[in-house]
């Protein structure tokens, strides 16, 4: 079991490093976009530089998009009704549903006990239904 946790930890670290790399690529792309905008703001626009920086920006954005798509695909596999060794989301969700069902059942039991055994489980006066006159 410790081996499984170690593998999961390494996998998580790898995913975080990949996200860090994607973030760096995005920062670089935004910097290139700023350079393109700066070039277009000059009085004498160098078309060659503008095209070169625009192409670089588009290439980086495409790489970021592909990497993010891969990450989203991985996350959709992990979270969508399939169990994953490192994921406890399904178990947490099931526990929440069970707690809600338990609370509902307790309220219904209490109401039934109040109705069937009013002498043992008195109903406060303000909560009793009014009898028609």
From TrEMBL:
Coiled coil: none annotated. GO terms for cellular component: mediator complex. Keywords: Activator, Nucleus, Transcription, Transcription regulation. Pfam families: Med11 (PF10280). GO terms for biological process: regulation of transcription by RNA polymerase II. InterPro entries: Mediator_Med11 (IPR019404). GO terms for molecular function: transcription coregulator activity. It is found in: Nucleus. Belongs to the Mediator complex subunit 11 family. Component of the Mediator complex, a coactivator involved in the regulated transcription of nearly all RNA polymerase II-dependent genes. Mediator functions as a bridge to convey information from gene-specific regulatory proteins to the basal RNA polymerase II transcription machinery. Mediator is recruited to promoters by direct interactions with regulatory proteins and serves as a scaffold for the assembly of a functional pre-initiation complex with RNA polymerase II and the general transcription factors. Component of the Mediator complex. This is Mediator of RNA polymerase II transcription subunit 11. It comes from Oikopleura dioica (Tunicate).
